[in-house]
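Exam revision sheet. Question 4 asks you to relate a sequence to its structure. Input first:
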Amino acid sequence: MSHHGIHHVTAIAGPARRNIDFYTRVLGLRLVKKTVNFDDPGTYHFYYGNESGAPGSILTFFPWEHAAPGRAGAGSTLETGFRVPEASIGFWAHRFLEKGVEHGAPERRFGRSVLPFKDPDGTNLALVGVPDAEAASAPAGEIPQGAAISGLEGVTLLVTDAVRTGDILTDVLGLKETAREGSLVRYRGDAELGGTVDVRDASGFLPGRLGAGSVHHVAFRAADDAAQETMVQRLAEHHGIRATGQKDRNYFRSVYFREPGGVLFEIATDRPGFMADEPFDRLGRELKLPPFLEPHRNDIERALPALA
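Answer key, structure tokens:
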């Protein structure tokens, strides 16, 4: 069955060890895949998500040890939100104080409690309290059942052409405009995880700059190759935008395009998923490489920073 929403979000980080420690120990997410950037195999690519690594639960990172700081601005992703049980916001505020995590005060957006915070690289994140999130949560280390992150809630985009960005979200990616609050326009898909995209017009702002703490791209879901091809055709025929050719990322197959507001979008297939090359109980434990990089494993492992 096809669902519409975010497949994953990919960001840029600083030191790899610090990145793993924060997302697994502090936030309690599972490292579901440890691999390399297929286009730059001297760099890790970490995928964090829920227990099964379901589409819509995944935040990924390219950790560069000495990455310069990025900057939020026009044509970038301002914030990435995670779903947590509504009653757990107090638990998380206390935990952030205890762990020294930079965070703001809880606030209300579109009727829900939101706790904004930053990771060690300054990535803008938020926990969104959702009434029905408990059923999808799982205990994770120090995080109890009633507070665990169940996946992504959504992203907030700063764009230079909010109307045309909205057209792509609705006409190509299957979301619908559902609400407006201040300068934010909310779009939602039918996916439970990663179903929300908030768009803010940032025309006149300085452009965003890639670097540590910034988001590289936002990937949206396609059930399979056929669904992806339909979206690509619609993108070209209705909006005059051509996507790249399909790239095999081992766990999904992707095309990329720059949406009219300046943000890099990806369309990623749900299949085959993260158990394509290792079983559920061993997800994320070993460095996995695609077949075309296996002959270079020794050189790649020597070039990557130590994680232990």
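Marking note for examiners. The CA atoms of residues 86 and 129 lie 4 Å apart.
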